Automatic annotation (TrEMBL):
The lineage of its organism: Bacteria, Pseudomonadati, Bacteroidota, Cytophagia, Cytophagales. Keywords: DNA-binding, Transcription, Transcription regulation. It comes from the Bacteria. Residues 91-170 form the HTH araC/xylS-type domain. This is AraC family transcriptional regulator. It comes from Rhodocytophaga aerolata.
């Protein structure tokens, strides 16, 4: 689950299936009771129908939690103090795991590094801000904590193959859904 709309869908499914839950957050469900295998499969089937996946093993939960934290940091949806932290320190602090261990698990599961995933998420946020056309490139660089406009532009071009200006001029909405990045 990557958005509040997903939370609403999941809550609706849980109610339809008469599954008791305490709360549903982005990326997680807190159930009141343990699910039997039949109910778990039924829930998984319903989630799959709306493009979500039931993740019930520890490794997958850790990867999903990592992705959620990376997304929040990449989109600048964290406290001012956390914005200044390096990605590795941020994840270590939040997950209480060694970064090299986490990085190895993430790369094996996702087929890309944590850093690449972070850059992809930041690039999607830049695209979003460019499409809305409310901020200049300098303002976007400042808002997303890039060291300079040149750094933002270079990273954007490496990721998309276009400069931010070319992206804006193309007129095509090339934004990806967050769960497809």
């Amino acid at each position: 689950m990557v958005c509040n709309r997903c939370v609403l869908y999941v809550e609706r499914i849980l109610k339809e299936l008469a599954i008791a839950y305490d709360k549903v957050n982005v990326g997680e469900i807190h159930l009141s009771n343990e699910l039997g295998e039949g109910k778990k499969q039924e829930l998984g089937k319903h989630l799959q129908e709306i493009g979500l996946e039931l993740i019930d093993n520890r490794l997958n939960q850790l990867i999903e939690k990592s992705k959620k934290l990376i997304l929040e940091l990449a989109r600048n949806e964290v406290s001012p103090g956390e914005k200044k932290q390096k990605l590795s320190y941020y994840l270590t602090d939040k997950l209480h795991l060694d970064y090299f261990y986490l990085s190895s698990l993430f790369s094996a599961a996702e087929g890309r590094t944590i850093e690449k995933y972070f850059i992809e998420q930041r690039t999607e946020k830049v695209k979003e801000l460019l499409v809305f056309d409310e901020l200049s490139l300098s303002e976007i660089a400042y808002q997303l904590e890039y060291s300079s406009v040149a750094h933002l532009s270079t990273q954007f071009k490496k990721t998309t193959g276009l400069t931010p200006s070319q992206f804006k001029k193309s007129g095509e909405n090339k934004l990806k859904a967050l769960d497809n990045v």
